[in-house]
Specification:
Helix 1 (about 5-35) packs antiparallel against helix 2. The protein has one domain. It is built from three helices and no strands. Helix content is about 80%, strand content about 0%. The two termini are about 30 Å apart.
Length: about 80
């Protein structure tokens, strides 16, 4: 498998993990909204869940958006010399 194929496979897996996490967090928020507890307690729990979501999804999303550099350094130097 080429390096580009491996990188695409990893990117696709990251996207799938993000989708799974989004579903998890949506379900968690839905369950929290059904709790029969004080509004303040629900707000605190939702805030914690939002922080958790941001910490889980943020780095994964940044990695997906990062540009891929697939040329080895030697190839770049050689192309500049020509």
């Amino acid at each position: 498998m080429s390096r580009e194929q491996q990188l695409k496979l990893l990117k696709d897996k990251r996207k799938a993990i993000i989708q799974d996490l989004e579903i998890f967090y949506q379900n968690a928020f839905n369950e929290i909204s059904k709790l029969n507890v004080a509004e303040g307690d629900i707000a605190k729990l939702c805030q914690l869940l939002l922080l958790s979501k941001e910490a889980a999804l943020g780095p994964m999303q940044k990695e997906i958006e990062r540009p891929l550099i697939t040329n080895p350094a030697n190839d770049v130097r050689e192309s500049k010399l020509n």
